[in-house]
Amino acid sequence: MIRRFTLAAVLSATLLANLPDGRRWWGHVQYLADDKLEGRDTGSPGHRKAAAYVAAEFERAGLKPAGTEGYIQSVRFHTRRLKEAESSLTLVRNGESEELVLGQDAIISTRVDPAPSLDADVVFAGYALTVPEMQYDDLAGLDLRGKVVLYINGGPANIPGPLRSHYQSATERGRFLERAGVVGTIGIPNPHHMDLPWQRIALSSRQPSMSLADPALDEQFGLKFSAAVNPEQAGKWFAGSGHSFDDLVALADAGKPLPRFPLHASIHARVAIERGEVESQNVAGILPGADPVLKDQFVVLTAHLDHLGIGEPINGDRIYNGAMDNASGVATLLDIAESLNESKPKLRRSLLFVAVTGEEKGLLGSKYFAAHPTVKPGSMVADLNVDMFLPLFPLHSVTVYGLNESDLGDEIRTVAKAHGIRVQDDQEPERNIFIRSDQYSFIRRGVPALAMKVGYEKGSPEEKIAKTWLKERYHAPADDLRQPVDLECAGRFDDLLRALAEAVADRPDRPRWYASSFFKRFAE
Ligand SMILES: [Zn+2]
Q: Which string of DSSP letters, residue by residue, matches 325-391?
């Protein structure tokens, strides 16, 4: 009797553990997003604790260490923090100077390493976008040597979304700006496509910026200054130019090219910086494949471990817990590793799980890992990335970034269909999501990649929930453990991603970029 009862208990416990109810996933989120981890800022003690937790969980799930010391790969960073009180930005027009209010009118960015001072004329360069494949160049014909370019984020609608995103990346834009002799940039967000309200952009500018200490991976492109303008205060930059900011935004919203013109204005900037160095951790573990040949190939699963740490308080809370961004994605990796450890499928290829650091600082941990992989270069056949997948309502569809770039797109379509889940392409290319997370670091090294989020239809109540989430919780202390989350959705999402990883690990051939894909060039 006792024996039978025990067996039944064991059976039901096993069943429970296998049901995608999301509870195991949530357990990991609870640890990683706890106040004790202080928001897991890159280089912080909280991040170190989070990395130790992930390493221990990898070990418990039977993954082999794949760092440089155990599961850990250390990454070194330079840090820069703006000393706001000693810095200023002045707009000079017709001999009249107006000192801008930092935080309110504009912010000075420390993503590029700024010079202590700069005086330069300002030219409005449309989107400041160059797309050689489309013979599109906002910089063409302008005299930009020694100038600062002012631009509106985005690009004309006839340029395909992934291409538009790619050429808006700091690396690509920087290359063309450098060639044109530009010394500084001032970006204006399109007020209709802002994931973050201006106030939070302003608060986050007080956080330190980082760049990789590895000189080969630190790209500055000769830029001496970088800033962003509050779109609500952008009007004054265009006074007397014959153009208004509102008209330019209307053109951008209609997907049109923008006019380009000198502004008869210059800036005077003084920038004081406090510099430092930190070290942070990528965490990597391997589930070895079973095929004698294919086991030397790796399907990489990535999620960023870092978030924003402790910052400016909002509603009295200073800890930016990053529960959805991206404790959720790391929890998904751990959930998948554990469930594979239970079901023990014999996969042909190996799976390489990597929780990366420095994503919030510009995809830096993944950039480092993709440049210095802990497995043989060329052996990573795919990257499947999870970042802030937002399980806020039941899972009926997934939005897949990179869906039409490689045959990983066919793979997810097949797997999702078997799970009764619809697949949709990126519905909002203007948000640049394809280049905004770690899959992009692998794409740039030629590795076919996908990223997935819980999908919703335009105009649906679910869209409203997702948009409200962005407005109220994205990069805010309210992205914490006290928020409504759909656990079953998360559990089913993990299941789907695990099935995708298994399918890619077992297919006979390596995933391939489509011949039509722009990104295939990085593989050549
Ligand atoms: Zn983020």
A: IIIHHHHHHHHHHHHHHHH----SSEEEEEEES-STTTSHHHHHHHHS-SS-TT-EEEEEE-S----
Strand-by-strand arrangement of the 184-188 sheet: 96-99, 88-93, 261-270, 117-124, 148-152, 184-188, 225-229, 106-108
360 C-alpha to center of ligand 1: Å?
5
Question: How many other CB atoms are found less than 10 A from the CB of residue 119?
Answer: 12
Q: Which of 24-33, 181-190, 204-213, 446-455 has the lowest mean pLDDT?
A: 204-213
166 C-alpha to ligand 1 centroid (Å): 18
Query: Residue 355 C-alpha to ligand 1 middle, in angstroms?
Result: 14
Lookup result for tokens 């500018």? 205
pLDDT of residue 226: 96
- Spacing, Cα 197 to ligand 1 middle (Å): 14
Q: Measured between alpha carbons, how far is 18 from 16 in angstroms, rounded to an integer?
A: 5
Residue length of the chain: 524
CB 313 within 8 A of CB 106: no
In this predicted structure, the answer to whether residue 30 has a pLDDT above a threshold of 60 is yes
Task: Tell me what pLDDT residue 2 has.
Answer: 39
Cα 125 to ligand 1 centroid, rounded to whole Å: 28
Q: Please give the residue that has the higher pLDDT: either 169 or 247.
A: 247
Tokens of 399: 């939005």
Residue 123 near residue 262 (C-beta atoms within 8 A)? yes
Tell me the per-residue pLDDT of 247-290, one tens digit each, with 9 for 90 and over: 999 999 999 999 999 998 999 999 999 999 999 999 999 999 99
For residue 325, the CA-to-ligand 1 centroid distance in Å is 5
Report the alpha-carbon distance of residue 115 to residue 97 in Å, rounded. 21
> Terminal CA-to-CA distance of the chain, rounded, Å?
66
| Residue 181 per-residue DSSP state | T
If you measure from the C-alpha of residue 249 to the centroid of ligand 1, how many angstroms do you get, rounded to a whole number? 26
345-373 pLDDT, tens digit each:
999 999 999 999 999 999 999 999 999 99
